[in-house]
Amino acid sequence: MILDAPPKPEQSSEDVVLVERIERFTPDDLDALCEATDAAILDGGGFGWVQSPGRRALEAYYRGVVLVPERVLFVARLNGHIVGSAHLVRPPRNNEAQAFAAHMMHAFIAPYARGHRLATALTLKVEEFARESGYQVLNLDVRETQTAAIRLYDALGYERWGENPEYALVRGQVIKGYYYTKRLRPRRGQTQD
Ligand SMILES: CC(C)(COP(=O)(O)OP(=O)(O)OC[C@H]1O[C@@H](n2cnc3c(N)ncnc32)[C@H](O)[C@@H]1OP(=O)(O)O)[C@@H](O)C(=O)NCCC(=O)NCCS
Hints:
The chain contains four helices and seven strands. The protein is an alpha+beta fold and 193 residues long. Strand 4, helix 3 and strand 5 form a beta-alpha-beta unit. Bound molecules: coenzyme A (COA).
C-alpha cells in the first residue's frame, strides 16, 4: 500500500491559518495555488492528476474553475499564502432528485503546510457553506491510500457507505476507493445529536 501521510511539522504559535472562498485571483494567489497543487501532485496524493499538467495548464484550469457556476472554490492560507484548496460541487440543475446533496472534491493541503489543521478548517468551511446553501448532505470519496484524509473524515463524522475496488489507476496500480457521506442537517422529524 502506498502511504501519503508524512510526519507532521511543528506548528509555530505565530502561524496564521485562514480558509475562505475565492472567486477571483491576484497573480500571487494564482501562483501560490498552482505551486501548492504541483507539490501535492508530486507528493502523489489525491488530486485527480497523477502527473503535473504544467503551470500553464494549471492556471487555465483554476481560472476556469472559478467561472463554473456548479463549482465553489475554497482556499487554505498559511501566513497569507495559499497552500491548499477544495471544491464544493453542486448537483446538476436537472437532478432534482439529488438536489439536496453537494460533493466535496479535490481537497488537499501542500506537503509543506500539513499538520496545521488547515484541512480540518477547510472541510468545516465547505460544510458550513453547503449547510447555508441549503444542502442537507455532503458527499466525498478518497483513495484507500489517503490515510491522513481517511482519519480526518472519520474524525469529522463522515460515514463510509461503500467502496469501489477499481477506483483509480495510478502508475499501473489499481487502487480501491471509499465513499463517504455526512448529514449536515437532521432529517425532518429527527433532532440533532
Ligand atoms: C489529508 C490532508 C488534506 C490533511 O491535511 P492537514 O492540513 O495536514 O490536516 P490537519 O492538520 O487538519 O489534520 C487533521 C486530521 O487529519 C489526520 N491527519 C493529518 N495528517 C496526518 C498524518 N500525517 N497521519 C495520519 N493522520 C493525519 C488526523 O486525523 C488529523 O487530526 P489529529 O491531528 O487530531 O490527529 C493532507 O494530508 C493531503 O492533502 N493529503 C493528500 C491529498 C488528500 O488525501 N486529499 C483528500 C481527499 S481528495
